[in-house]
C-alpha cells in the first residue's frame, strides 16, 4: 500500500463508470462510493449489470467511460493483477489435484514466498477449516469449498474482496449459514467486501449498505432497514420484500397528507412521501404486509380511531407457521397482502370473510404514481 492510498483512505470510488457492448448499455454511467471496511452489496435481478460492474472494479472488464479510484488513486488503467483486489466467483474453481493447504497457498507460492505454513494455517482457522488442510477439494462440501475459495483470496491481503454470487450454487440452508459465516469473516478481517447477489434476503442479511440495481442503474442505495422502510421507487418497494401499493388522489396537504383511495381516505406523513405533493395529484401509497392488522368486519367498531382503514374480503390464506399470509380483495386493491403473526388466531378469518385492514398511518410511504406499479414485482428466483 502506498502512502498516497493510506492518506486518502481505502474507499472504492466509481466516477461515471459505464459499459456498453456495441449499441447495448450494460451499465449506465455510475457514481458510487464503497467506504473502506464496509460490507457492500450490489443487488438486482439477473442481467441488470452487477457482474459487469464488479468486473470493472477488478479490471477484468474495461470501462467504456469513467474512472475507478481505490483509496483516492486512479486504478482505471491498471491490469487486474496489479490491483489490490481479489475476486471470488460462484464456481470456486479450486485446483482439484491440490490439497486445501496448497489451494490456499497458491497466491503466496506464485509470488515466490516459500514459508507459507503460518499464513495458510491462520487463513484456514479464519474460515474454520483447520481440520481439512490435507483434503482434496472433492472431499469437501460445497460450503466448505467456498470457504477455501475465500481463504485463497484473502491470503493475498487484498484491500477489496469482490464476491460474485458466491453462494449461488449452495442449497438454501447452507446458503443461510454461509451468509453469517462470510459476515463474520468480513468483520474479523475488516477488508472491504463488495458482494453481488440477486437474493434480496441475502443482501439485507449481510450488507451494511445495499445498492439496488435495475437496468444498468443504481435505483437506490442505503442501509437495509432504510431501503426496506423507505423505498423511493416502485421497483425497490416490490423487489425488496413485498409492498401493497394503493393508488389515490391527494385531497389535503395541510398537515399529514390525506389521499382518497378505494372509496375512503388514507393518511400518511408528508416526510415519508418521495413524490410531489400537490393537492389533486396522484400518489401511490405503500404499506408493508406485516404492518397491517386484520379485523373481522363484526369487530370494526373496536379499531382505534386515527388508523388507516380499508374494508375488503379475504380471498386466500396460507398458514406458514410463524405467520398466516392473507390475500384481501378490496376497492383499494385487488390483491392486498397481509401477514399476521400466529399468536391468537381469529378462526373467523377464512376465505370469504369480510374484514377491515387497519394500520398506523405513520407506517405508510408515498411514491410517485407515474411509475409502473408492478416494477420489480416478479421474483428473479421464479425467472431463473
Ligand atoms: N461480453 C458481453 N457482450 C455483450 N453483452 C454482454 C456481455 N457481458 C454482459 N453482457 C450483457 O450485459 C448485461 C449485464 O450483464 P451482467 O453484468 O452479467 O448482469 P448480472 O451480473 O447483473 O446478471 C446483460 O444483459 C448481459 O447480457
Ligand atoms: Mg452476474
General description of the model:
Residues 12-240 form the ABC transporter domain. InterPro entries: AAA+_ATPase, ABC_SmlMolc_Importer, ABC_transporter-like_ATP-bd, ABC_transporter-like_CS, Mo/tungstate-bd_C_term_dom, P-loop_NTPase, PotA-like, PotA_ATP-bd. It is an enzyme of class 7 (translocase). With 384 residues, the chain is an alpha+beta fold. It has 2 domains: 3-229, 3-Layer(aba) Sandwich (Rossmann fold), CATH 3.40.50; 243-368, RNA polymerase II/Efflux pump adaptor protein, barrel-sandwich hybrid domain (OB fold (Dihydrolipoamide Acetyltransferase, E2P)), CATH 2.40.50. Helices cover 23% and strands 34% of the residues. The chain has 10 helices and 20 strands. Strands 6-7-8-3-9-10 form a 6-stranded mixed sheet, with helices on both faces. It has a 5-stranded antiparallel sheet with strand order 13-12-11-14-20. The radius of gyration is 25 Å and the shape is elongated. The two termini are 41 Å apart. Residues 1-8 and 380-384 have low confidence and may be disordered. Bound molecules: adenosine-5'-diphosphate and magnesium ion. Adenosine-5'-diphosphate binds at residues 21, 24, 26, 44, 46-52.
Topology:
Elements: H1 3-7, E1 12-21, E2 24-34, E3 39-43, H2 50-58, E4 65-70, E5 73-74, E6 85-88, H3 100-110, H4 117-126, H5 142-154, E7 160-164, H6 172-189, E8 192-197, H7 200-206, E9 209-214, E10 217-222, H8 224-229, H9 234-239, E11 244-252, E12 257-261, E13 264-268, E14 282-287, E15 293-296, E16 308-319, E17 323-330, E18 333-341, E19 354-359, E20 365-368, H10 380-383
Parallel strand pairs: 3-8, 3-9, 6-7, 7-8
Antiparallel strand pairs: 1-2, 1-4, 4-5, 9-10, 11-12, 11-14, 12-13, 14-20, 15-19, 16-17, 16-19, 17-18
The structure holds adenosine-5'-diphosphate and magnesium ion (MG).
EC number: 7.6.2.11
Catalytic activity: ATP + H2O + polyamine-[polyamine-binding protein]Side 1 = ADP + phosphate + polyamineSide 2 + [polyamine-binding protein]Side 1
Protein name: Spermidine/putrescine import ATP-binding protein PotA
Amino acid at each position: 500500500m502506498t502512502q498516497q492510498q493510506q492518506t486518502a483512505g481505502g474507499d472504492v470510488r466509481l466516477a461515471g463508470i459505464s459499459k456498453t457492448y456495441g449499441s447495448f448499455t450494460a451499465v449506465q454511467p455510475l457514481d458510487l462510493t464503497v467506504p473502506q471496511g464496509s460490507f457492500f452489496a450490489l443487488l438486482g435481478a439477473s442481467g441488470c449489470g452487477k457482474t459487469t460492474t464488479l468486473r470493472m472494479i477488478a479490471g477484468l472488464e474495461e470501462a467504456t467511460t469513467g474512472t475507478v479510484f481505490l483509496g483516492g488513486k486512479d486504478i482505471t488503467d491498471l491490469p487486474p493483477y496489479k490491483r489490490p483486489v481479489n475476486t471470488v466467483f460462484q464456481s470456486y474453481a479450486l485446483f482439484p489435484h491440490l490439497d486445501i493447504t496448497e489451494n490456499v497457498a497458491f497466491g503466496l507460492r506464485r509470488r515466490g514466498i516459500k514459508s507459507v505454513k503460518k499464513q495458510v494455517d491462520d487463513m484456514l482457522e479464519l474460515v474454520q477449516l483447520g481440520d481439512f488442510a490435507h483434503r482434496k477439494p472433492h472431499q469437501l462440501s460445497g460450503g466448505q469449498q467456498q470457504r477455501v475459495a475465500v481463504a485463497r483470496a484473502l491470503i493475498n491481503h487484498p484491500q477489496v474482496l469482490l464476491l460474485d454470487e458466491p453462494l449461488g450454487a449452495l442449497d438454501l440452508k447452507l446458503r443461510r449459514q454461509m451468509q453469517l459465516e462470510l459476515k463474520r469473516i468480513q468483520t474479523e478481517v475488516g477488508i472491504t467486501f463488495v458482494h453481488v447477489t440477486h437474493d434480496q434476503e441475502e443482501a439485507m442479511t449481510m450488507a451494511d449498505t445495499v445498492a439496488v440495481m435495475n437496468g444498468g442503474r443504481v435505483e437506490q442505495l442505503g442501509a437495509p432497514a432504510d431501503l426496506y422502510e423507505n423505498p423511493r421507487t416502485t421497483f425497490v418497494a416490490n423487489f425488496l420484500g413485498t409492498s401493497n401499493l394503493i393508488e389515490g388522489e391527494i385531497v389535503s396537504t395541510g398537515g399529514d397528507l390525506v389521499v382518497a383511495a378505494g372509496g375512503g381516505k388514507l393518511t400518511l406523513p408528508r416526510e415519508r412521501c418521495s413524490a410531489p405533493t400537490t393537492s389533486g395529484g396522484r400518489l401511490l401509497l405503500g404499506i408493508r404486509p406485516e404492518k397491517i392488522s386484520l379485523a373481522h368486519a363484526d369487530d370494526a367498531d373496536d379499531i382505534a380511531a386515527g388508523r388507516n382503514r380499508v374494508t375488503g374480503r379475504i380471498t386466500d390464506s396460507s398458514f406458514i407457521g410463524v405467520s398466516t399470509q392473507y390475500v384481501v380483495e378490496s376497492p383499494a386493491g385487488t390483491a392486498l397482502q397481509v401477514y399476521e403473526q400466529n399468536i391468537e388466531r381469529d378462526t373467523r378469518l377464512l376465505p370469504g370473510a369480510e374484514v377491515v385492514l387497519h394500520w398506523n398511518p405513520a407506517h405508510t410511504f408515498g411514491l410517485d404514481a407515474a411509475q409502473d406499479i408492478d416494477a420489480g414485482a416478479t421474483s428473479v428466483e421464479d425467472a431463473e
